[in-house]
Amino acid sequence: MDNRDEVKAFLSSRRAKITPEQAGLTSFNRNRRVPGLRRSEVADLAGVSVEYYAQLERGNLSGASDSVLDALARALHLDEAEQQHLADLARAAGPGSRTRRKPTAQQVRPSVARVLELMSDVPAFVNNGRGDVIAANALMQALYAPMFDDATRPVNHARFAFLNPRARDFWRDWERIATTTVAMLRTEAGRDPYDKELTDLVGELCTRSEEFRTRWAAHDVRLHNTGIKQFRHPVVGEIDLNFETMQLTADPGLSMTLLSAPAGSAADDALRMLASWAATRDQAPATPETR
Question: Are 271 and 136 in contact (CB under 8 A)?
Answer without folding.
Answer: no
